[in-house]
Amino acid sequence: MDALYAFPLPIKFSAEMEKRWFEESAIKISGYPSISIRDIRQKDLNTFVSVTGVILRKTDVKYQMINACFKCQRCEHEQYVPELGMFMIEPYECENDVCGRKGPFKLVNEKCDWADKRKIRLQETFDEIQGGEQNLSVLDAVLLGDVECPPLGSIVKVSGILKGIQTILGGQKTLDYYPLLEVVNIEAQDKEKTIEPTAEDLKTMAEWAKDENIIDRLVASTVPSVRGHEKIKEACLCSQVSPDNFLLPDGRKLRGYSHVMLCGDPGVAKSVLLQAMIGNVPRAQYAAGRSASSKGLTVAVTKDKGGWGEGAWVAEAGMLVLADRAFAVVDELDKFEKEEQRDLNTVLEHGIVPVRKAGINRDFHARVPIVASLNPKYGRFDKYEPVTKQINVPPDTLSRFDLIFTMFDEPHEREDTLTSEHITNIWKKATEVHQNEFQGTADLTASWGHDKYTPDIPLDMMRKWIHEAKKIKVKITEECRKALNGFFLGIRKSQSGDPDAAIPIAWRTLDGMMRLLICETRLRHGKVTETRDVERVKMLVQESFKVMIDPMTGKLDSDIISTGMAKSQRDRIRVLKELIRELQEEFKGSVPVGEIKGKAVEAGMKEGDVEDMLMKLKTLGEILEVTDGRYNVI
């Protein structure tokens, strides 16, 4: 404050205006060195500190009294008491020399001084996590006055005085205090400027971009300790360099983000692959269905009962909002609540989280490519059944992923031998190298040496490569457009002419292929698409097609993904429905389930399939269970 009073005023004010200028002026300090949230200690109390974090939670604006006016009820003298804490401080005695009594006092609201108040919770960024740490530290802060608050998920640097607020339990004051930062300045940080390649780095990357096999090198450098899965690794890298949405003249947006889904048996390295992808993109977020916090994937709006928001409705950002314009990994998506899976649809398609609850009506940005995984409901996948029948994710959510890969754990003598050699050799090498202590990753890499377990492209250069790839604006050539168009139409044509044939491929798949074309070009640091990019897209899409093969017919059927039911299954359901109708006439009423199963098995259906189809018809309202085990066609 001494510096404020010493500041020369630009013009001559009256004594009253000068007093008002000093009283209503606010100090904002920028450029102050920041400390990590997790490094804050008691020695920092009542000092000026700056921290950087992500806005995880915030309240609506409230009004806080900062200077209270009290009137003595005996002499009507008015006096002011600065309100600096969380609880109101009343005068001890009247300051009027004539009175000097201990009240009573009445608060005069209209003469009090007020300030806008908003409380936020900051979470440290993933880049600040120390080795071995699992949890992200948080810090509560209060914004007073005209301090503007950026949206949820924003990275900010806040500066202010760190206070200690006493904890009260059951009306009793405890010896514990929690930190609260009284913010005087908040600065939004540029999310994109988190990696700064040097001139030498850019020169190296320019040379790598000339290599015809650069994408293969990138794939080989992606978790080399996990053998195989080259197509999946490439798909994940493509997702990480996805472009933003493209705006059309009619207001529609073409989705640019490419999403990838991994459906696999337990123990096929899905989680290992996904966790490794996090290191490539700054601010990338990870959530697992088995251990996700209450805030979940999108945005949680809850009535605060712990005093954090003084009983208000509080919006808390989920991991997809925190990952806005970065990258998100959702492990074990099938274990999230159904409501959160449904909320995921708008994120996948439009990059937003709409919230319409408790007076909060707004859309939160979640513009992010997503790579997710899920496990089979019954332990392992049965390759003779459609994948959608074996997973706990709605078809409308699954259909929004551009690429869906199946990962089966099947015995294969040659592959088993190679994989077991790979795993045992890496354990042998690890125990040999770790006989010594290391000072950081570089020391470990030097001791390990260069072999098939060592990335050809180091992680720090991989991060810079992807960072630069995301800046590239790609132009699609007419040749490549025609090539992908012909590929798509060729698949559609393969089953045309047969009115009873299934739709082999949906139109949204063509959108996905165009997105992948841009991703493949970006991944090699190209600015114009080429035929080699088209061929890579074809290989990824064809690998992904395996999930759409109807086990009954051996043909492609896009309805397996888009509706969760193959055409052959729909045909069987129609036959079953007609069979129930015939039996209904024969029984002159409802039909016992045993009779239905018997006739269906005679018609060539499996008893287990009949039970599933009856449940499906019942859910759709096509049949009615009149009494226990007896059905009628509606």
Number of helices: 19
Low-pLDDT windows of residues: 130-134
Oligomer: single chain
Taking the sheet with the most strands, its summary is: 5 strands, mixed, barrel
Mean pLDDT rating: 82
Approximate helicity band: 25-40%
- Let me know the number of strands: 22
In percent, how much strand structure appears in the residues? 15-25%
- Termini separation (Å)? 80 Å
User: Based on helices, strands and strand pairing, what is the structural class?
Assistant: alpha+beta
Spatial arrangement of strands, main beta sheet: 1-5-6-8-7
Q: What's the overall geometry?
A: globular
Rg (CA only):
32 Å
Structural features:
634 residues; alpha+beta; 5-stranded mixed β-barrel
Produce the secondary structure layout:
Layout: H1 2-6, H2 15-24, E1 48-58, E2 62-72, E3 78-82, E4 105-107, E5 113-123, E6 138-144, E7 155-169, E8 172-188, H3 199-208, H4 214-220, H5 230-240, E9 246-247, E10 253-254, E11 260-264, H6 270-277, E12 285-288, E13 299-303, E14 313-317, H7 319-322, E15 328-331, H8 338-350, E16 352-357, E17 360-365, E18 370-374, H9 395-398, E19 403-407, H10 413-433, H11 441-448, H12 459-469, H13 478-493, H14 507-523, H15 531-544, H16 559-562, H17 567-587, E20 591-592, H18 593-602, H19 607-620, E21 623-627, E22 630-633
Parallel strand pairs: 6-8, 11-18, 11-19, 12-15, 15-18
Antiparallel strand pairs: 1-5, 1-7, 1-14, 2-3, 2-4, 2-5, 5-6, 7-8, 9-10, 13-14, 16-17, 20-22, 21-22
Helix pairs in contact: 4-5, 5-14, 13-14, 13-15, 14-15, 17-18, 17-19
